């Protein structure tokens, strides 16, 4: 079965072709980073218009690059939520229109389900059940994944998620938008000269809270008489250490609590080198397996949506060609 995947939940237009027997055939992505950078964040109306401008050319290019006719596609998977309403509408209407014209099934996909299944794109993919650390955009969650569509959230963010804390801290340090990667690169030049809190590190349960850490960074920045590059690097170093310490410890405690030996990490923060380094070191010490998607599949992409569509085809495929976007769709509501 050949699935065309479409992702337009926020500021990236992604399309991909996934064959249930051959795996991922190809994918392409258009990023809107430059478009939104001057505003310091995503502007929803601009995001929607840019998706409209690029989605059809991207699909055409993907098909041509893989020498595949659109009529060969067996089903179309698309992100139905959560995300920006206008952006989601672009992907959903295009997907349903193509599905209707070809009279093939369409598969609405939860954006976060795409992220947590992304490690299955790799050659050595995890097997069920496993624990997922999902750190994407406004989400920081620990999810017990028993099977496709059988998810239990065991830990959630109470306020700012890890990705939000990275971006807001990067802005405080004048690193621009998006700032996660820039902050991580700067942290490599810093050292342990400051001390920041590790929120909820020793609390019961597996929830996260990073608003206090963000506030602590703001207070620390204001205390500096001169905020030169060296001091910025040291603040970035300590911030990254603090946030990864929390993510790593909570993940390990959840693994022990659920008696699982597989952890997968996905979402934008899953690309963080320090987080990967700490988790790999801990997995070797405590004999559990940790899996990550390739760096290109940590951020939003069409490949994860096409894969999710292929995996849940028998659960969610439909032929009514109606679409409903769900900007605030919770993973537990699938």
Work out the strand percent. Answer: 15-25%
Tell me the CATH architecture of the largest domain. Answer: 2-Layer Sandwich
The helix/strand order is EEEHHEHEHEEEHHHHEHEHH
Strand order of the largest sheet: 3-2-1-4-5
What's the story with the biggest beta sheet?
A: 5 strands, mixed
What is the tally of beta strands? 10
Low-confidence sequence ranges: none
CATH domain class name of the largest domain = Alpha Beta
Count of individual domains: 2
Radius of gyration: 20 Å
Helices and strands: which structural class? alpha/beta
Q: How far is the N terminus from the C terminus?
A: 23 Å
Coarse morphology: globular
**CATH fold-level name of the largest domain:** Nucleotidyltransferase, domain 5
Mean pLDDT across the residues is: 95
Task: Present the secondary structure layout.
Blueprint: E1 2-7, E2 12-19, E3 23-31, H1 33-37, H2 44-65, E4 75-81, H3 85-102, E5 106-110, H4 111-117, E6 130-136, E7 139-147, E8 150-155, H5 162-172, H6 180-187, H7 211-223, H8 229-258, E9 262-266, H9 273-286, E10 289-291, H10 302-311, H11 313-316
Features:
5-stranded mixed β-sheet, 334 residues, Nucleotidyltransferase, domain 5, 10 strands
Description:
There is one protein chain. By secondary structure, the protein is of the alpha/beta class. The protein folds into two domains: 152 residues, ATPase, nucleotide binding domain (Nucleotidyltransferase, domain 5); 166 residues, Nucleotidyltransferase, domain 5, CATH 3.30.420.40. It is 43% helix and 19% strand. It has eleven helices and ten strands. It has a five-stranded mixed β-sheet with strand order 3-2-1-4-5, sandwiched between helices. Strands 8-7-6-9-10 form a five-stranded mixed β-sheet, with helices on both faces. β6 and β7 form a beta hairpin. α4 crosses α10, α5 runs parallel beside α7 and α8 packs parallel to α9. The longest helix has 30 residues. The radius of gyration is 20 Å and the shape is globular. The two termini are 23 Å apart. The model has no long low-confidence stretch (mean pLDDT 95).
């Amino acid at each position: 079965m050949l699935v065309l995947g479409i992702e337009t939940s926020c500021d990236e237009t992604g399309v991909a072709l996934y064959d249930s027997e051959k795996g991922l055939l190809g994918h392409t992505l258009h990023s809107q980073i430059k478009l939104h950078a001057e505003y310091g964040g995503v502007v929803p109306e601009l995001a929607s218009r840019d998706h409209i401008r690029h989605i059809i050319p991207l699909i055409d290019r993907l098909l041509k690059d893989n020498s595949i006719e659109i009529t060969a596609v067996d089903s179309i998977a698309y992100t139905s939520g959560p995300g920006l309403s206008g952006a989601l509408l672009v992907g959903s209407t295009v997907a349903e229109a193509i599905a209707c014209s070809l009279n093939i099934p369409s598969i609405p996909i939860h954006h976060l389900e795409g992220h947590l299944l992304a490690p299955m794109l790799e050659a050595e993919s995890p097997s069920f059940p496993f624990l997922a650390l999902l750190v994407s955009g406004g989400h920081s969650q620990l999810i017990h994944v028993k099977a496709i569509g059988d998810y239990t959230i065991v830990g959630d963010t109470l306020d700012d998620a890890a990705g939000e804390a990275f971006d807001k801290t990067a802005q405080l340090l004048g690193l621009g938008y998006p700032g996660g990667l820039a902050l991580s690169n700067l942290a490599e030049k810093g050292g342990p000269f400051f001390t920041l809190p590790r929120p909820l590190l020793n609390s019961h349960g597996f929830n996260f809270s990073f608003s206090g850490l963000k506030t602590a960074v703001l207070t620390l920045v204001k205390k500096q008489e001169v905020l030169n590059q060296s001091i910025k690097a040291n603040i970035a170093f300590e911030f990254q250490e603090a946030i990864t310490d929390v993510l790593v410890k909570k993940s390990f405690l959840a693994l022990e609590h659920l008696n699982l030996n597989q952890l997968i990490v996905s979402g934008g923060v899953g690309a963080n080198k320090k987080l990967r380094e700490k988790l790999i070191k801990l997995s070797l010490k405590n004999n559990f397996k940790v899996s990550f998607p390739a760096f290109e599949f940590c951020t939003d992409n069409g490949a994860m949506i096409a894969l999710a569509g292929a995996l849940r085809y028998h659960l969610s495929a439909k032929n009514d060609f109606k679409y409903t976007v769900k900007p605030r769709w919770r993973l537990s509501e699938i």
